[in-house]
Design a protein that fits this description.
38% of the residues are buried. The longest helix is centred in the middle third of the chain and has 28 residues. The chain starts with a strand and ends with a helix. It has 23 helices and 7 strands. The chain folds into 2 domains: 84 residues, no CATH class; 380 residues, Hypothetical protein af1432 (Orthogonal Bundle), CATH 1.10.3210. It is mainly α. The radius of gyration is 24 Å and the shape is globular.
Length: 471
């Protein structure tokens, strides 16, 4: 490599040229130490790059056409940082030992009873403590095992508090007095967690730590993993749309790669992307919409708590109990009356799968109950809508956040529960849930594969192999 030295006008620091390969090899150290990196643009001007976004710049197709520069003392700085860190850092705790801090949440019946025995004020105080934990500088920290443990503590506490309030309200019918405070604080907690992800305070490769979650309850672990993956995927989804990657990677290939799957569902209809996504695919708007989706992801499996011995046990498959969790969730949330529709929908419709194989087929009867009128197949105009009224009135097959949680839920069931390699889990999803029977959404699934590649759990080669599965 040519060791050409320059001086930055902005910083006065001496620089040297560095290759894309060398930056990639040392990326973690460069990010940890916050070593300045510049890129010479097409006008020959030096532009400093945000360190936390370096991996994105390196993956751009034309990255090799640019010249990159770095502080000449970068290796020395990394060595100095390593020595300093070694001197001041406490001995690292074993990951299993760290995770023991949240084992109490895996005792589901005990935790559910404990939260139910609390007064409304006591539940709110628990959530106040959660808000404090998330607010005390956590948004500036990288995603490490300590932060994962803290999030499991917060997510599980919020889940149990909502479950207790909902159950209490069903019994006492005093909805307004009980549920509102917990709901407001839950919304605040969700917002703080969303902020951590949306502000880019982590590398996507850090998300592998989600798989370390272990409370002793598969149900609670699944809820935590699915929630964190859902939130991080929604962040990735927005970035994907904002960068124009949907147009670049999917729209142009729609006819060749995706059209065939949608035609299975409506063989006689003209199926364009605008017919799949109501008025075309768009980003998830921040604040209220994103928070409602995230709260739905937190509570989507709340109906399992009533049959937790089965769901956490090893009894043979019981279709009636399995399907009942969606109806339990629907009835609980609807009776509480305070939750946004997104939460209700994600609890009951996350196994509807476009009506394909394995669908619970609750959509039509429950929408008729909500709207007060029967829905008909001939009235369907879209596959996915962002508008809850269009979904309730039967104009669309499905509701956007439900199609997202379907994918994340199935992925976790195959990858984390069954311990399949990521690529194998994704291949099964493509074969069984798209090519053999249209269940999950093909386009959203493709973006999810891109997310897995970004996280470093799947490779570009594996993405191409999954793409090549047609029948």
């Amino acid at each position: 490599m040519q060791n050409t030295k320059h001086e930055s006008r902005d910083s006065g620091k001496e620089m040297q040229e560095i290759s894309v390969e060398e930056i990639s090899t040392n990326l973690k150290d460069i990010v940890d130490v916050n070593v300045a990196v510049w890129r010479k643009n097409i006008d020959g001007q030096l532009v400093v790059l945000p360190v936390k976004k370096l991996d994105e710049y390196l993956k751009e197709k034309d990255a090799g056409n640019y010249k990159f520069y770095i502080e000449s003392r970068w290796r020395e700085r990394i060595k100095e940082y390593a020595v300093q860190k070694k001197e001041i850092a406490p001995a690292p705790e074993d990951e299993a030992a760290v995770m023991k801090k949240v084992e109490k949440f895996g005792k589901v019946e005990e935790q559910a009873a404990s939260f139910r025995q609390m007064t409304v004020v006591e539940r709110e105080e628990v959530l106040d403590e959660c808000i404090t934990k998330l607010s005390e500088g956590e948004q500036s920290k990288k995603l490490d095992i300590a932060l994962i443990v803290k999030m499991v503590n917060v997510i599980s506490s919020t889940f149990y508090a909502n479950n207790a309030d909902i159950e209490a309200n069903i019994e006492t019918q005093s909805q307004k007095d009980n549920i509102f405070g917990v709901l407001v604080k839950s919304d605040w907690i969700v917002k703080l967690i969303l902020n951590h992800f949306s502000q880019g305070n982590y590398l996507y490769s850090d998300l592998k730590l989600i798989d370390k979650i272990s409370t002793g309850s598969e149900t609670i672990d699944h809820i935590n993993r699915t929630f964190l993956r859902f939130v991080s995927f929604c962040t990735f989804f927005n970035e994907y749309i904002d960068k124009g990657l949907f147009t670049k990677n999917i729209r142009g290939l729609y006819k060749d790669k995706y059209h065939r799957y949608y035609k299975k569902r409506f063989p006689d209809a003209e199926v364009t992307i605008e017919k799949i996504f109501q008025n075309g695919i768009r980003r998830i708007e921040k604040d209220e919409e994103m928070r409602a989706y995230a709260l739905g992801a937190l509570l989507f499996d709340i109906g399992k708590i009533r049959d937790i011995k089965y769901h956490d046990g090893a009894d043979p498959y019981n279709e009636e109990i399995v399907k009942k969790h969606a109806l339990n969730g629907f009835n609980m949330i609807v009776k509480a009356k305070q939750y946004p529709f997104e939460v209700t929908a994600m609890a009951v419709f996350h196994h509807e799968y476009y009506g394909g194989k394995g669908s619970y087929n609750f959509t039509r009867p429950l929408l008729s109950k909500l709207s007060g009128k029967k829905t008909a197949e001939e009235n369907i105009k879209f596959f996915i809508t962002y508008d809850k009224d269009e979904f309730i009135n039967g104009v669309s097959l499905s509701y956007f956040p439900c199609k997202i949680i379907e994918i994340v839920d199935v992925f976790d069931a195959l990858y984390s529960k069954k311990s399949l390699p990521v690529a194998e889990a994704l291949k099964i999803m493509k074969k069984e849930y798209i090519t053999k029977s249209l269940r999950i959404d093909p386009i959203l699934f493709r973006i999810f594969i891109e997310y897995c590649v970004k996280c470093g759990t799947a490779t570009e080669k594996e993405k191409e192999e999954i793409d090549s599965i047609i029948f």
